[in-house]
Amino acid sequence: MDWGAFNLSLQLAFYTVLLLVPIAMLTARWLATQPARRKAIIEALLTIPLILPPTVMGFFLLVSMNDTHALGKIWRSLFDESLVFSFEGLLLASILVNIPFAVQPALRAFEGIGNDMREAAATCGMSRWRTFRRIEFPLAWSGILTGGVLTFAHTLGEFGVVLMVGGNIPGETRTISIAIYDQVQSFDNASAALMAGVLLAISVLAISITFLLTRKPYIRIRA
Amino acid sequence: MIDGKGIEVAIRLDDPVSLEVEFKVSDKELVALVGPSGGGKSTILRIIAGFEKPTAGRISVGAQQWYDSQQKLFVQPRHRRVGMVFQSYALFPHLSALENVLEAISERPKVDRVELANGYLERVNLKGLGKRRPDQMSGGQRQRVAVARALAREPDVLLLDEPFSAVDKVTRIRLQRELVDLRSDLSIPIILVTHDIEEAARLADRIAVLHEGRILQMATHDKLSKSPVNTDVARLVGIRNIFSSRVAGIDNEQRSLELQWGKSLLEMPYRNGFAIGQTVTWCIPSDGIVVHRRNRPSRGEHENPVFGIVNEIFQFGQTTELTIEVDDPDAHPLHCSVPTHVAERNEISVGADIGLSLKADMIHIMGSADS
Fold first, then answer.
1. Who's near A44: CB < 8 A, 6+ residues apart?
2. Which of B86, B94, B106 sits opposite A120 (nearest CB)?
3. Residue A123 and residue B88: Cβ atoms within 8 Å?
4. Residue pLDDT, tens place only, B182-231
5. Contact A120/B91, CB-based, under 8 Å?
């Protein structure tokens, strides 16, 4: 059992969820009330990471993170280190790859809130922020949570993009799925099976928690 | 603004539907917007609430301007004091009845809020039910929460969008009574959207008949049913006897006018603006037709007498509706209604031979059929 890789995967998944879910939530809220055509175009763009082969996605990211390209250059000028083959690079890639997983369930949830809710809130004199906090978030939270759990589980299992962007540096970019791949390559099936089992257990647990928590269609927020 | 009171609406909308209306509703007055679906009734409410922006026009409430296209003024919905009861009620499903009402009074001092909100719930007969969530309440209770929430806003205008359409008839009548009761305490204009003319007749002071984005007529129900301006209004208020006839005669002193209806001459009070020979559309409500047994003469049977055979009978509880095939082959069938007990006592059945009187003062000419 490669605890280092396991630990790194958990960290990557945690930070991805932490950074991506709030952005996804706000994006989904904004998108839910956009005109149909605009929404369709933006939704399509945000779904690209889902349909693009991970190696292709990884390749684009690898190239754009390179020191010779804008993103890599900016990063180097700010932090004086390379974005490629670093944890930060991996995190950035992970966030981008997970956009559809985080945005889609939240978007469906916000779309599910009838426009009459927002209108009723307006006739009550509620500000936009109050409407979001008191009405929209409690009603959409199950979608937001589902997005978070899917992102978490998907990050743990991501292989292609991670390998392309992060490589396989122990303690830095070697995640659990890459470790499993390595172990299978070196005929250490026992370790691979153990880690695969752990990964499976975490995934099942995460999905079960989601289903349990989202059985209630809304949560209550104190005034 | 006349008197500085009530609400004044003059709006035009080009897209997505064409709408052009102008009307005033005074304080304490209840106006019903009635008409077929897609006529723009709900759109008018949505524009008043500020959910939709008209192409041009003005909306003012009391001394406040909410919308003025010339001044490029548009007050945001949350800054208009509108009490709105949505067709779906639009209650916040995750909040209790009390919390739903509390959301409308969040501007009030915190210490008073719960007491105030409970007061509003009490006013709509929901005392003690404040802790229930909408999914734990009946349709009628939900509607009452929606009304309480709308009133809690202390609105300058109350907008009711088909508020009785989602409940059963018994509840509907009870809720309508409660609205009548509530009205006595309210000094604001109320606009009710409904597709049910009878509901409008029961609740509204005046009815605006809307058709394809235009107000065809705005009047009391009595006026609408006695003198509709055109066939659309006549049909909407439930008049089925709509005909066109030639003006056959006008007496010298201009007291009466005669219409040639088949072979009969129907006499009615003189109406200005129509000449002999002109074809006009006219109508008579079913309560303008008196039914007589042909073999048992009764009072008033000499007033525009018509004879025929009962063709169809529909019994609707206390009222029985009859369709009469008139003896005259050039005349159209007539529709009238009699109390069910009268129909039974007089043994009126399909095939019965009966006489009718068309009350002269109930015959109403809507306009020229030539134009």
1. none
2. B86
3. no
4. 998 899 999 999 988 989 999 999 999 999 999 999 999 999 988 999 99
5. yes
- C-beta atoms of B104 and A124 within 8 A: yes
Residue A126 DSSP SS3: coil
Q: Is A41 on the interface with B (CB under 8 A)?
A: no
Token digits of residue B169: 């008839």
CA B363-B368-B369 angle, to 5 degrees, is: 100
Strands B82-85 and B56-61: unpaired
User: Does the bond joining B16 to the residue before it have cis omega, within 30 degrees of 0?
Assistant: yes
Measured distance CA(B297)–CA(B305) in Å, rounded: 12
Name the residue facing A127 among B78, B84, B93 (closest C-beta): B78
State whether residue A138 sits within 8 Å of chain B by CB. yes
pLDDT of residue B1: 38
Query: Can you give the residue ranges of every domain in chain A?
Result: 12-165
Query: How many CB contacts within 8 angstroms connect chain A with chain B?
Result: 71
Question: What whole-number distance in Å separates Cα of residue B20 and Cα of residue B37?
Answer: 16
pLDDT tens column, A81-118: 888 888 888 999 999 999 999 999 999 999 999 899 99
A116 interaction partners in chain B (CB closer than 8 Å): 86, 88, 90
Closest partner residue to B90 (CB to CB) among A120, A217, A219 is: A120
CA gyration radius for chain B? 25
For residue B249, the number of C-alpha atoms closer than 13 Å in the C-beta half-sphere is: 11
What top-level class would CATH report for the domain A12-165?
A: mainly alpha
Task: Please state the pTM of the whole predicted model.
Answer: 0.84
Question: Is A116 within 8 Å of chain B by CB?
Answer: yes
CA–CA separation, A17 vs B288, rounded Å? 75
Sheet holding B364-368, edge to edge: B264-269, B256-261, B242-250, B279-283, B364-368
* C-alpha–C-alpha distance, residues A141 and A160, integer Å: 31
CA-based torsion, B350, B353, B354, B355: positive or negative: positive
The most distant pair of C-alpha atoms in chain A lies apart, rounded to whole Å, by 67
Give A137→chain B minimum CA distance, Å.
11
Number of Cα atoms under 13 Å in the Cβ half of residue B151: 21
CB A67 within 8 A of CB A76: yes
A135–B106 C-beta distance less than 8 A: no
Query: Cα dist. B277→A149, B230, B369, B371 in Å?
Result: 82, 20, 12, 14
Asked whether the beta carbons of residue B94 and residue A116 sit closer than 8 angstroms, the reply is no
Name the closest residue on chain A to residue B103, using Cα atoms.
Answer: A124
Rg (CA), chain A: 20
Answer left, alpha or beta for residue B275, where phi above 0 means left and psi between -120 and 50 means alpha.
beta
CB contact under 8 A, B86 and A122: no
- A119 contact residues in B (CB cutoff 8 A): 49, 51, 77, 84, 86, 90
Q: Within its chain, how far is the Cα of B101 from the centroid?
A: 29
